[in-house]
Each structure stands twice: as structure tokens, then as C-alpha cells.
Amino acid sequence: MRGLSFSSWPPTKLLLLLLLSLRPAWAPVPTGIAPSKPPGALKCPEACTCSVGGQANCSALGLLSVPAGLSRPVHTLLLDHNRLYTLPPVAFEGASALYLLDLRKNGLRSVDARAFWGLGALQLLDLSANQLETLAPGTFAPLRALRSLSLAGNRLALLEPAALGALPGLRALSLQDNALSALEPGLFAHLPALDALGLRGNPWVCGCALRPLCVWLRLHPRAPEAETLLCMSPGRLTLTPLTAFPDDAFRHCAKHLAARDLAVIYALGPLSFLASLATCLALGSAITACRARRRRRHHPAARRPPRPPDLAGPAAVSEPESEAAPPAQA
């Protein structure tokens, strides 16, 4: 069998073979074959702009709802300056690795209690400059890794401890520029790591309800806004710094009952009601019996009704002793 020899080939074919062997590595991929994405690549939601670092920028797009197509590689989601007036249950499905969520200036009015389900890795949440008036219990309970929460610039007049839940890692909480007059007792009980609290711009009423906040401020003297918080009412305490109230100033305030005391009250309440009801019935029966007895004493014998008159007249009472004898017959 004869070996392969290039000497017998025409020069044109040899030149063509040389050019094909030198085909650069950057030559275009033939049309019809799409380049494959590595597993776990970022899937960008429609109308948003995404970057390699896992950021999805959906700011100022006039969105009316959270964009669909969120995926696990999304770590930062910017949804500020849109028109998200409400957040439905499980609003961010698929973004389980989300680290930062920006929802500023959306005109947000309501947040479902299950809106943040599935965001266990979220650490930074900004809900400032919206129109929130209330928060349902358990709204932030799924966010166990949360470190910073901003609710500034809303219309909150009440913030219940159940809305925040237990957030062991929360270090910064912004509540400035709301309508808060006091903070509910127990609000700080499940926030052990909290050391930055924004409170300015609220109409604080310096009364017994403000005691938990004053206690927290004394325990955190280096809080940045501690010295600038002033009472807005009542009149004699207007513009008094909140840090000026020692614990003795609240001695006249009623202390909240402990859980054990409440359990005793709830247990004895129904029994006390039944006992008082039985006592009232017994006293009523005794009083009724005494009145009846006194009435019988003043009227010993009841008069009998008069006997109806006899229609036959007095002549029928007694018959005549003798009757006239009939005349003798002749």
C-alpha cells in the first residue's frame, strides 16, 4: 500500500489546506447553534437590567407588580420608584438567595403577611417613603437573617411587636418621619442585637406608654438620635428631651401583669362569675321569701268572698207551721 504523499498535489490544493489549518480560534460559531450558559446563570426578569454580580435593576420602570422570572442567582433586587401599591403572598418567589431588596417610593399601601415568605437569606430591606399605615402580625417573621430594616417616611401610628416578630440579627431599625406617639411594650424584647434606632420626626407623647422607649434610650446612650428626641405633648412637657425622664418618673404608671398573673385571672374569672351569679340568686330568693312572710303577718286571715243571695227570698227559709185546712164539703 502506497503511503500518503503531498508532493504529487497541485499547489492550489496545498495552499487551501494550509489556510484551513490556520483557522483562528475566534472564528464565529456557525449560525443556528446558540452558546450554552453555565449552570446557575442569572436569569434577568423582563424589562430589568442585570449584572454579572447578581444585581437586577428594575428601578423607575412604572411597574405595577413584582416582575416574574426571579431566580436564585439574584442577590440584589432594585424595585424603587415604581407603582407597587400592594405586595401579594409570596411576592418574590424564586429569589431565595436575595440579600438586598429596595422597595422605596412605590406608594406601597398594604403588605400581605406572607409577602416575604421564602426570603430567609435577606439581610437589607428598605420600605421607606411609602404609604404604609399598618403592618399585619408576622409580616417580617420569615426574615430571620435581617440586619437592617427601614420603615421611614410612612404613616405608621402603631407598630405592634407581632409585626416584627423575633429578629435576632436586626441591628438597625429606621422609624423616623411616621405618626408614632409611643412604642408598644415588648417591641424590643425580641430584638437583642438592635443598637441603631431612627426615631426623629414622630409626635412623641410623654406619658406612661413611652416608658419602654425611655428605658431603651438609657440603655443605649450612644444612640445617634437620643439627644434630639423631644416630646410633642402634653403641653407642660412639650420639647422636653426623652432622655430627661428617669425611671422614677414612671412610678405612678400601672405595671403590666406578668404572664402568670394573667393565667390566674383567666382561670378564676369564670369561677368568680358563676359564684357571684349563685350568690345573687340565693339573695334574691331569700328577699322574696322574707317579703312574703311579712305580708302574711300583717294579713293573718284572708276574707272569704260574700255568699250570693238566695233567689227564693226569705219565705223559703222556713216553712209555715200549719196550713189552713180546706173547707169541708157539704
UniProtKB/TrEMBL annotation:
Cellular compartment(s): Cell membrane
Compositionally biased tracts (Basic residues): 295-306
GO molecular function: potassium channel activator activity; transmembrane transporter binding; voltage-gated potassium channel activity
Biased amino acid composition, Low complexity: 312-330
Membrane topology: Single-pass membrane protein
Keyword Phosphoprotein: no
Signal peptide extent: 1-27
UniProt keywords, alphabetically: Cell membrane, Disulfide bond, Ion channel, Ion transport, Leucine-rich repeat, Membrane, Repeat, Signal, Transmembrane, Transmembrane helix, Transport
Record-linked Pfam families: LRR_8
Domain LRRCT span(s) in chain numbering: 202-254
UniProt GO cellular component terms: voltage-gated potassium channel complex
SMART domains: LRR_TYP (SM00369), LRRCT (SM00082)
Region Disordered, annotated ranges: 295-330
Cross-referenced InterPro entries: Cys-rich_flank_reg_C, KCNMA1_auxiliary, Leu-rich_rpt, Leu-rich_rpt_typical-subtyp, LRR_dom_sf
Gene3D superfamilies: Ribonuclease Inhibitor
Domain of life: Eukaryota
Annotated transmembrane regions: 263-287
PANTHER family given in the database record: GH08155P, LEUCINE-RICH REPEAT-CONTAINING PROTEIN 26
Oligomeric and partner information: Interacts with KCNMA1.
Protein known as: Leucine rich repeat containing 26
Species of origin: Chinchilla lanigera
